């Protein structure tokens, strides 16, 4: 599948690279002991280091380093055993030190890759250029007072991972798939919660266009796009703008732009000439970050199973389809739930129940897998009762509804409602007799060749037994009766 | 007994023997400050007398119960670059004229823990940028020494720790803390006739010391004897998890190195330090120092530090580069001076224009320039490479010698008005001290004699990384040989 923009001068392809800022999940900040919880009262999670008081010094938080390494490993990336922190100097009211401590020349993580899946089921590898650790800035509040702005430093100094992709993305859809996959991996690893609304995942999008086979043309960077949908829209919009410029004989200027979703356009923020000179230099307050291979190995050994591996395993271990496996591993909690249901049981049946009835019910209730009224063990027990013939599939739906409502165990529900499947052939024979007597007309039609009516009789017998009859036994007994009489 | 003339070691003996009380010792110093500080301006902020006396009484109690710490009851000055909890800390800048830190620097905390009494915060060049303590927002410090031929001329105390050196020389403190970035302990110590020790970079924690140039800043003692420097460094030094650049090495018993035989030690004389135009007096003193050490049994070896001449220019790139970034936090937003303005950029401009003095602004500008795109490689990167070469010079020299002996400064204290309008001339004062700063090696200045005008001159001993012990041994040998007992014109013991 290729994405092209049909211009007046012919087709154009787009070239996109993403810089994602992912807030690291950690108890305390990258260089201070202050807490990182989201949503606290302004300026209640600020240490003297964060507020850049005179004489305060940064000390690297080992937990944040571990998170960056784990993320690097999860992105199949090279871990640099020696990296360095640099200062990125600029003045702003949300930046207490007057510089951001970042990793400019020597990042902690080098080249890696992410495999994305597209709507048509095809997969593609997108290269990761690097991942580095840096400090987040504080937040300015402009809406508190008509003439003053306020500063909240709770976020100042929180650890961010900047994850830079290669310019390998060729379609808005691929950008979306890349971000979803990246977020999924981060969540699996527990290194970032991936929450774009709260700003814990933010994307800068680099876009350029070119004719097939050309070298790269000038790119523009669209800053701080805060949803996957907007990233895709911004790429489309910006690529069209650039095509129009080129085709009208103008040049695309390298600049930083903002995407305005309400107007569906990108706007210039600052040009290359106005770009900050960040005066990067090695931070003299920090020693080079030197990692021991042994520690990296330990972190690697304790990495959770990641989505791609889990998906492959689900396919082979539980015999489910690639598609179903993809749905089930989308979120780690769902995958765990499914696996608790499927383990030692019929994997396909488990997948059908989880992706069908359970998802439907959760959807309807606005619940998530974590808040599901039916626990995996309970659902599993119900599947056991289907398999051992205690209930049939139809009754199971009724039992499941009851489980959702009451939270009761399936055995109790079956007992309470008397839903145990009828396997007593005597009862089934009696029901058949009743049905055939009641439907003499249909019986005659059947005998005259209306074979379709067999299903009708099965239905009636099931109804007569209030749905509890074992359908296989009903089939068998009915066949025998119709043949003989 | 004149209590303000004692060394730390003597004062501690007196307190242990109960020859005098800590209260008496402190009172003598408070009186001296009251009498001389208006002239010398050694202290920016003397601590309230009642507070110091109260602390002295507590020290006396501890002596009574034999629970005294290593610095107990000893009144000292603290360079006003160390943040002291509840005591105004200005860095001699209008920017921090009203700044009272809610925290205590690691070094001063350690001194307090051993019972030291803080008499006040001593003057310095603004943010430690200067070589004369003439760049202070609170006025210059005056050297207590006077030229015999022109006693009316006010001389500089050296810098940037000039308040500390003047206070110790004039009897306004038994000792002081200083910080040294390019010579800021050693040069004022030499100008005021006292001992100044810059430890190895990483020996003392920088936590809570207002940063000038982070890769060079190092705290150290300024005292009346080498033994005092050893004692005080033992208390100040040591690992600190709050400073990543602070060494985890254990602190040796430095005092045991003092007075130790130096027989057989090899002393290097770097030929490159014989710079053109060096005054004959300084050369003569240097020769005298060589003779003394020979007599003490040292072997004198001529060595070469070929990159010495690039030290000063490299220093004046690296230090301003770091300072331009370190001082960005003084923006008027969270603490310190603020000049309100309608926009953020104007607030920055007005605040920083009002808060920073000329020299600080100059160094911020230089530092910003050398880090800028297009200039970084030519200046900052080149300077860092030179720094590496200078470190190698020292490493190479220390393969054959144990210490180096050099003059501390190219001249004696100069007049307040000299060099004021010529920053480059001013920077040249650091020519002998800067290389050891760039290399991070320990260096000690010991008062060794007087020039013709009766002003003190110092000799510098530079040692291997984390080998302050050998430096102190050689220093005490020099001290003994020199027998420097001269006192400045203005000092607390000199009658009323």
CATH topology heading of the domain at 3-264 and 440-482 in chain B? Amidase signature (AS) enzymes
Mean pLDDT score of chain B: 96
Low-confidence stretches of chain B: none
Measured as a percent range, the helix fraction of chain A is: 25-40%
Class by SSE composition of chain B: alpha/beta
What is the CATH domain class of the domain at 3-264 and 440-482 in chain B? Alpha Beta
- How many DSSP H or I helices of chain A? 15
Largest interface between protein chains, with number of residues from each side: A-B, 30 and 43 residues
Strand count, sense and closure of the main sheet of chain A? 9 strands, mixed
Q: Strand content of the residues of chain B, in percent?
A: 5-15%
Average pLDDT, all residues of chain A: 93
The biggest sheet of chain B amounts to: 11 strands, mixed
What count of structural domains of chain A? Answer: 3
Instruction: Work out the helix count of chain B.
Output: 15
Instruction: Name the shape of chain A in a single word.
Output: elongated
CATH homology superfamily name of the domain at 3-264 and 440-482 in chain B: Amidase signature (AS) domain
Output the strand order for the largest sheet of chain B. 1-3-2-4-6-5-10-11-9-7-8
User: What is the rounded distance between the termini of chain A?
Assistant: 62 Å
Count of strand segments of chain B: 11
Description:
- The complex is a heterodimer of chains A (485) and B (496).
- In chain A, the strands form 4 sheets. In chain A, strands 1, 2, 6, 7, 10, 11, 12, 13 and 14 form a 9-stranded mixed beta sheet that branches. In chain A, strands 5-4-15 form a 3-stranded antiparallel beta sheet, with no helix packed on it.
- The mean pLDDT of chain A is 93.
- Chain A is an alpha+beta fold and 485 residues long.
- Chain A starts with a strand and ends with a helix.
- Chain A folds into 3 domains: 5-298, no CATH class; 305-417, no CATH class; 425-484, Arc Repressor Mutant, subunit A, CATH 1.10.10.
- In chain A, 40% of the residues lie in helices and 19% in strands.
- Chain B is of the alpha/beta class and 496 residues long.
- Helices cover 37% and strands 12% of the residues of chain B.
- Chain B has helices spanning 8-16, 22-40, 49-64, 106-113, 162-170, 186-192, 226-236, 280-295, 311-326, 344-355, 358-371, 377-397, 423-427, 434-439, 468-482; strands at residues 43-46, 75-79, 117-122, 175-180, 195-198, 218-223, 266-270, 299-303, 403-407, 443-450, 456-463.
- In chain B, strands 1-3-2-4-6-5-10-11-9-7-8 form an 11-stranded mixed beta sheet, with helices on both faces.
- The model of chain B has no long low-confidence stretch (mean pLDDT 96).
- Chain A binds chain B through residues 48, 51-60, 87, 89, 91-93, 96-99, 149, 151, 277, 279-281, 284-287, and chain B through 82-83, 89, 91, 96, 99, 101-103, 105, 206-211, 213-215, 241-245, 321-322, 324-325, 327-329, 331, 333-335, 344, 348, 368, 371-373, 376, 380.
């Amino acid at each position: 599948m290729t994405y092209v923009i049909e211009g007046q001068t012919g087709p154009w392809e787009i070239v996109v690279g993403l810089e994602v800022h992912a807030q690291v999940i950690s108890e305390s900040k990258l260089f201070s002991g202050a807490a990182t919880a989201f949503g606290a009262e302004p300026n209640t999670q600020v240490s003297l280091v964060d507020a850049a008081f005179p004489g305060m010094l940064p000390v690297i938080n080992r937990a944040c380093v571990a998170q960056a390494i784990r993320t690097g490993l999860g992105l199949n990336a090279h871990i640099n055993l020696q990296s360095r922190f640099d200062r990125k100097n600029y003045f702003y009211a949300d930046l207490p030190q007057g510089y951001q401590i970042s990793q400019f020349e020597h990042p902690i993580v080098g080249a890696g890759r992410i495999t994305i899946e597209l709507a048509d089921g095809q997969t593609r590898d997108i290269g990761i250029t690097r991942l580095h650790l840096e400090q987040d800035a504080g937040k300015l509040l402009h809406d508190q007072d008509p003439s003053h702005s306020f500063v909240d430093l709770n976020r100042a100094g929180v650890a961010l991972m900047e994850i830079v992709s290669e310019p390998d993305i060729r379609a808005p859809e691929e950008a979306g798939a890349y971000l979803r996959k990246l977020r999924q991996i981060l969540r699996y690893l527990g290194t970032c919660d991936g929450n774009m609304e709260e700003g814990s995942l933010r994307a800068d999008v680099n876009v350029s266009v070119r004719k097939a086979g050309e070298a790269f043309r000038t790119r523009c960077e669209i800053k701080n796009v805060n949803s996957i949908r907007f990233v895709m829209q911004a790429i489309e919009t910006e690529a069209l703008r650039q095509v129009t410029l080129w085709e009208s004989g103008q040049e695309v200027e390298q600049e930083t732009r903002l995407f305005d979703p309400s107007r569906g356009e990108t706007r210039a923020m600052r040009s290359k000439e106005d770009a900050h000179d960040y005066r990067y230099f090695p931070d003299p307050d920090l020693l080079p970050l030197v990692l021991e291979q042994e520690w990296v190995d330990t972190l690697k050994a304790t990495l959770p199973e990641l989505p791609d591996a889990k998906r492959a395993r689900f396919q082979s271990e539980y015999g489910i389809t690639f598609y179903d496996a993809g749905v089930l591993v989308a979120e780690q909690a769902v995958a765990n739930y499914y696996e608790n249901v499927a383990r030692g049981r019929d994997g396909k049946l488990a997948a059908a129940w989880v992706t069908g009835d359970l998802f439907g019910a959760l959807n309807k209730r606005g619940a998530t897998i974590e808040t599901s009224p039916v626990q995996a063990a309970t659902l599993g027990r119900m599947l056991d009762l289907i398999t051992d013939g205690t209930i049939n599939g139809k009754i199971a739906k009724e039992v499941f509804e009851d489980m959702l409502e009451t939270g009761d165990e399936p055995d109790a529900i079956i007992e309470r409602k008397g839903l145990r499947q009828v396997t007593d052939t005597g009862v089934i024979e009696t029901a058949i007799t009743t049905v055939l007597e009641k439907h003499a007309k249909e019986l005659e039609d059947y005998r005259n060749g209306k074979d379709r009516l067999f299903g009708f009789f099965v239905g009636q017998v099931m109804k007569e037994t209030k749905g509890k009859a074992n359908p296989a036994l009903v089939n068998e007994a009915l066949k025998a009766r119709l043949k003989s009489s | 007994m004149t209590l303000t003339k004692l060394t730390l070691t003597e004062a501690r003996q007196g307190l242990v023997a109960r020859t005098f009380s800590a209260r008496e010792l402190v009172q003598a110093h408070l009186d001296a400050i009251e009498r001389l500080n208006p002239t010398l301006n050694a202290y920016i902020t003397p601590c309230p007398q009642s507070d110091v006396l109260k602390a002295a009484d507590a020290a006396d109690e501890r002596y009574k119960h034999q629970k005294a710490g290593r610095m107990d009851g000893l009144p000292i000055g603290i360079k006003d670059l160390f943040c002291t909890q509840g005591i105004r800390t200005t860095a001699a800048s209008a920017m921090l004229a009203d700044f009272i830190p809610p925290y205590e620097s690691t070094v001063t905390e350690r001194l307090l823990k051993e019972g030291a009494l803080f008499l006040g915060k001593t003057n310095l060049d603004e943010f430690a940028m200067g070589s004369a303590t003439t760049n202070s927002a609170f006025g210059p410090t005056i050297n207590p020494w006077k030229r015999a031929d022109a006693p009316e001329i006010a001389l500089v105390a050296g810098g940037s720790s000039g308040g500390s050196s003047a206070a110790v020389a004039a009897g306004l403190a038994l000792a002081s803390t200083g910080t040294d970035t390019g010579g800021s302990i050693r040069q004022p110590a030499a100008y005021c006739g006292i001992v100044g020790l810059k430890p190895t970079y990483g020996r003392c924690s920088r936590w809570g010391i207002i940063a000038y140039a982070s890769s060079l800043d190092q705290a150290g003692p300024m005292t009346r004897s080498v033994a005092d420097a050893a004692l005080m460094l033992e208390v100040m030094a040591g690992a600190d998890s709050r400073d990543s650049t602070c060494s985890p090495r254990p602190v040796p018993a430095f005092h045991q190195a003092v007075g130790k035989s130096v027989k057989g030690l090899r002393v290097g004389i770097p030929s490159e330090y014989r710079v053109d135009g060096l005054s004959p007096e300084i050369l003569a003193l240097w020769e005298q120092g060589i003779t003394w050490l020979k007599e003490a049994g040292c072997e004198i070896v001529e060595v070469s530090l070929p990159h010495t001449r690039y030290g000063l220019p490299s220093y004046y790139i690296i230090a301003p580069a770091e300072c331009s970034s370190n001082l960005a936090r003084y923006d008027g937003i969270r603490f310190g001076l603020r000049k309100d303005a309608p926009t953020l950029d104007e607030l920055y401009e007005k605040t920083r224009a009002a808060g920073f003095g000329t020299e600080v602004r100059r160094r911020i500008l230089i530092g910003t320039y050398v880090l800028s795109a297009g200039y970084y490689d030519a200046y900052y990167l080149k300077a860092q490479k030179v720094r590496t070469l200078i470190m190698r010079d020292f490493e190479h020299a220390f393969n054959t010698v144990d210490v180096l002996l050099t003059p501390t400064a190219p001249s004696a204290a100069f007049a307040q008005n000299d060099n004021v309008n010529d920053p480059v001339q001013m920077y040249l004062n650091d020519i002998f001290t800067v290389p050891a700063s760039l290399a991070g090696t320990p260096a000690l200045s010991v008062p060794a004699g007087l020039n013709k005008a009766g002003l003190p001159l110092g000799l510098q001993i530079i040692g291997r990384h984390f080998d302050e012990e050998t430096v102190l041994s050689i220093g005490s040998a020099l001290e003994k040989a020199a027998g420097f007992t001269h006192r400045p014109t203005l000092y607390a013991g000199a009658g009323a």
